[in-house]
Amino acid sequence: MEYYGYQVYWGFLINQSTLSLKDQEREVTDLMPIVKDPEGNETSTLHAMVDFNNREVLEVGCGEGRLTWRYADKAARVTGIDPNAKSIEAARANTPEPLKGRADFFESKLEDFAASQSEHRFDIAIFAWSL
């Protein structure tokens, strides 16, 4: 997909050049991130499919909270897990003030989290970009 003369690749803008895809992958850390879902289609579809009102939500593969912030204000509680420590650190740092105390983030693989939370039940589980 192209975005203003740049190639969109895994959520990053890559300058159209003669670089091979492999060389472009190496440079991904130096690239500017793009806004995902600028028209709000993902958000409106998510809310059309699921009623988050006063629900306990488990988000597997929450990353930096990109999707979390699109529904968390309606949920009673959100628990986000991701095995990437930097992503979890960013999600915690970027938690909006009104959601502090209602949104928790844990560095964990799903199987480890499930083993440690065997008694806890969630109303909704989201596996966005996780499978």
Task: Give a structural overview.
This protein is of the alpha/beta class and about 130 residues long. It folds into 2 domains: about 1-35, no CATH class; about 50-125, Vaccinia Virus protein VP39 (Rossmann fold). It has 4 helices and 7 strands. The chain has helices spanning about 20-25, 40-50, 85-95, 110-115, and strands at about 1-5, 5-10, 10-15, 55-60, 75-80, 105, 125. The strands form 2 sheets. A 4-stranded parallel sheet has the order 6-5-4-7, covered by helices on one side. It has a 3-stranded antiparallel sheet with strand order 1-2-3, with no helix packed on it.
Question: What labels would you give this structure?
Answer:
131 residues; Rossmann fold; 4-stranded parallel sheet; 3-stranded antiparallel sheet; 7 strands; 22% strand
